[in-house]
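for the writeup, i need someone to sanity check this before i put it in the appendix. the sequnce is what the collaborator sent (i think, or maybe the updated version? ugh). structure was predicted straight from it, no edits. if anything looks off just tell me and ill rerun, i have time this weekend
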Amino acid sequence: MPKKHFQDSKGRRIERIANETQLKQYLQGSWAEKSLGIAIEPGLRINHATHAWDLLFERNKCRTHRTLGKYPKVSLKEAVEKARECKVVVNPRKQTSSVQSSLETQLLIDDVIEEYFQYRYKSLCERRSNKDPYKSVERMRYQYAKFIRPVIGNLPISMIKTSHVIAVLSPITASETTRSKTKAVLSKLVQWLVFSGKVDVDLMQIDWFLVNRALPPCSNIERHYARLGYDRIPELVEDIFLRLNIEKERDYVSSLALLLQLLTAQRAGGFLAFDRAIIGEGRMWFSTWSNVNFEDKIWTIPPNCLKVTIIRNQYAQPLKIPLAEETIIVLKLIKKFWKERRGINLAPIDFVVPKYDDLTRAHCSHCLRLLLKQMHRESLQRGGIGYHDPDQPGRIITPHGFRSTFEDWCLSRGFSLIDVNKALAHIGNKVQEAYQREALLKTRRPMMDAWAKFCFSKVDPTVLARFAQSVAGY
């Protein structure tokens, strides 16, 4: 009989150890994983057989391995401290200053970058937004290694100037987004160097205004998320609804999740997971059934599940979504799936759209993109025109593009832009945020009902009524 994956007492899989209790459970049990990583310290792992701490990290562009002792002689806290000491090493080289006659040791950017990434990881965890801290930091590592390190990696931290920043950003001309994200990594790094006391603020001679003016324009044409024209939305919904007869469970749940995102015009990140496992407090980033009120027909998404959790040092308001009858049917079909296929009644603490084969994980947002691509191919095979963005020929539509379609349709029907922005959870300026704090449910509900009726206008009413009757008891 194959060994089980490491999991907690409630049967939830654990992919990275977060505390001492989980560490003891892992070492004392018999699990499929031969070693597991530590959530708060990238590169640090514990071997199940030998109880040895292993650290794999990069130094001077070379991968380095260290053994840090064995548990319990070396505790989790001590292993993390040792790992950080290995990563943060003072550069032994010395420079001669024209002002000072004595030699002094200076830190290079490469010497402190791991400490900086640890700081960013902790700060992102404390923010409790639905951005995955580990994934965000890994993206920063990639941008640092590709764009920043070749220019300033071996530069003393006190010698970074405007010319170096321009030298980093100027070659990035293929994507405005890539340039802005790289600039953000560099800007945050400079801020951290100052307030952490690693460099005197007077030595940081960077003129960001000059940087912006000196950068050459990007050569690419900015592209938005591919969307579908709202005149073809009923055709798409009919196609999705027909897929509910497919036996493949992943496609069935993906179809329901896609309908839910379309009908509510929400970002997938509020209720669908990243493309990797959720650990620890990551469960707080995704909406649960406790947020859905069938009596009042309202789905309230908490601030920690929204894209922007904190606005100007204040927590954002919860997003209240009026639920149309069609949306309620979709939600109840999710409950029915788990009851009939798994024999499980979804509890208030469960995710709104659990993964089709794992109740402890939210369904993956990547499955929706795969489903749309599959539907596009099948449409072409049937002799149809597929699902392309009408403004961007050749680009297959994306789930996020439904938000643009929703806004276009609402405005074409004469609904208020304020109601549309409330529905999309768009952030206005400081004055709007201060004064427009009402959820406007009374005016938004007719808009959401009309949108749902339009989306299902091509679905056979008898079929929809049959589905509604089948979920009446949920």
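The chain has a mean pLDDT of 84. The first helix runs from residue 20 to 28.
thx in advance!!
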